[in-house]
Amino acid sequence: MLFLLLLCSPCMAVEVEQIERLRSELEHLKAEQQSLSQKMEQDRSRIESLDTELARLSGGPAVPPAEKTPPPVSKKERLEKRVESLEEMAGKVFLLEPVEEIKKVSEWVCPEGHIYDHPGPDGRCHLCGKPQKERVAYRKFKYARKESISDRIAAMMEEEFKKRVAIGVSATGVFQQLLNSHKKDTAFAEGSFDLFFLHRPMINSTLFIDLEAIGGSGPDLLVHSISGLNDDASRGSTHDTVSVREAWLQSIFMQDRLRLVSGMIDLTNYFDMNNVANDETTQFLTSALVNNPVLSAPPKNSPGLVGYFDTKKGYSFGLGLASADDSGTAITDKPYTIAEVDYYAPRFLFGQGGNYRLWGRYNGDTRSQAVGLSLDQQFTQRLTGFARYGVTGNTATDEPEWAWSLGLGFSSPFSSRKYDRTALAFSQIKAFKGDKEDLAEAFYNFFLTDHMNVSLNSQVLLHSASPLPGENDDFLTTFGLRVQMDF
User: Which of 35-49, 97-111, 220-234 has the highest mean pLDDT?
Assistant: First the structure.
């Protein structure tokens, strides 16, 4: 039955349009009929008076008034019958639902408190004669809204869909070639596949699960750069196997001001964020540009808890707690903790908005600490600049002393390519009691469809902090091609 109603919904919409059109035509005909009837009555009165006067002058009997003949209403009757039949049909298609609506209206009030919905003569009150003033008020109106059965069915299906599990797919393929290396086999291919599950088990709660599989490797297998030339290949999952990358439950409180996330979490999804450099699948490939190297988040996503409070006035505060070694046993005595303060400036430079984030972290496993800054600022509607800086204290041997990066992102570089994006960035890292490493990267992202884009990528590695024997690591260049699909 529901299927038949859905099939008939276009026809029902056409019938509704006919009803409204015929109703307006009927009102017009009624107005014409009334004016014609008045004119006929006037003409009939004049004729009767003339006949009476003629009979009086001629001395004959008075002419009896002619019987009133009804006006021709055949077209009107046909229209009324058609409207009645259509309304009878529409009554089966529509449901009357009482609703309330608040509207803004104008009203006029005098000093005595007399309120009218229209002004009095000469702008004075009808009762006391004092001058009136116009003011704006809000009133609640009740009326019966017609709601089609198809709309009701669609709403019920949408409500039912919210109770189900939504599934998403993300696939990334990366090809990179070392251009000036003396070694053989300098071409690298890597791919990752993510399967997402999203469910709402309770009101204001979201359950998220990410199953990931990664295969292949990037140039880091040969170059050993501390900057990381392919962050997608080093996200912590076991290669060539399927693993649970994330699994957490999020709850929202205080009118979407407080968010609590618990489970197997990725802390980089909540801290050290950046609008230009934060996604290895669509933006920069270099790990040093995806996140600050001194952040030193746990190498694998581990059990943890994140609390995020948004004041809705530009300021936000975040606190994260996770197991430092992915064991789940040292989450209370040697945890990885991080806190962050965010500020959004809506019109900071050139009338454009910017995000400014200050964070500090402590790794209970290595007893190291660090502070960092991440910002992105729009200069125009299409040009955005970003910068990061971080420094460590009590540095562990496998953590850098300091790191910084900056760059520019440009959207819609050509009028014919509205959704394309391009960016250029430079980063520098100071290794623990070692040398500095410089790296520059540029990419151009071609938008193909809503579900697919292709990026051209190039990296230049300068002064590698960990050069390989016999390899010219002072100047290495890569060229890359990346394909990203989302469904």
Answer: 220-234
Domain limits, the chain: 172-188+219-231+256-486
Between the ranges 214-228, 239-253, 323-337, 359-373, where is the mean pLDDT highest?
A: 359-373
- Greater pLDDT, 399 or 92: 399
Rounded Cα distance between 197 and 210, Å, is 7
In the predicted structure, residue 246 carries a pLDDT above the cut 70: yes
Contact yes or no for 70/40 (Cβ under 8 A): no
The answer to whether residue 163 scores a pLDDT higher than 50 is yes
One-letter amino acid at 247 equals A
CB 271 within 8 A of CB 318: yes
- Tell me how many degrees the CA angle 218-456-271 measures, rounded to the nearest 5: 65
Can you tell me the mean pLDDT for 232-258? 80
- Note the pTM of the prediction, 2 decimals: 0.65
> Who has greater pLDDT, 106 or 306?
306
Q: Which two tokens stand for residue 469?
A: 């024997």
Q: Is the pLDDT of residue 75 over 80?
A: no
Question: Strands 315-323 and 115-116, how do they pair?
Answer: unpaired
Q: What angle do CA 250, 254, 258 make, to 5 degrees?
A: 45
- Long-range Cβ contacts of 314-321 (<8 Å, 24+ apart): 314/343, 314/344, 314/345, 314/346, 315/341, 315/342, 315/343, 316/341, 316/342, 316/343, 316/344, 317/341, 317/342, 318/270, 318/271, 318/342, 320/265, 320/267, 320/270, 320/271
Eight-class DSSP state of 299: S
Q: How confident is the model at residue 128 (pLDDT cuts 50, 70, 90)?
A: confident
Tell me how far apart the alpha carbons of residues 213 and 451 are, in angstroms, rounded to a whole number: 20
SS3 51: helix
* Of 169, 166, 165, 167, nearest in space to 487 by CA: 169
- Where is pLDDT greater, at 108 or 378? 378
Q: How far apart are CA 438 and CA 464, in angstroms?
A: 7
What mean pLDDT, rounded, does the chain reach?
A: 79
Task: Measure the CA–CA gap between 32 and 26, rounded to whole angstroms.
Answer: 10
Asked if residues 487 and 457 have their Cβ atoms less than 8 Å apart, the reply is no
CA angle at residue 287 from 284 to 289, to 5 degrees? 55
State the DSSP string of 59-103.
TSPPPPPPPPPPPP-HHHHHHHHHHHHHHHHHHHHEEEEEEEEEE
**Environment class of residue 486 by beta-carbon count within 10 Å: exposed (0-12), middle (13-18) or buried (19+)?**
middle
CATH of 172-188+219-231+256-486, one of 3.90.950.10, 2.40.50.140, 3.40.50.2300, 2.40.160.10: 2.40.160.10
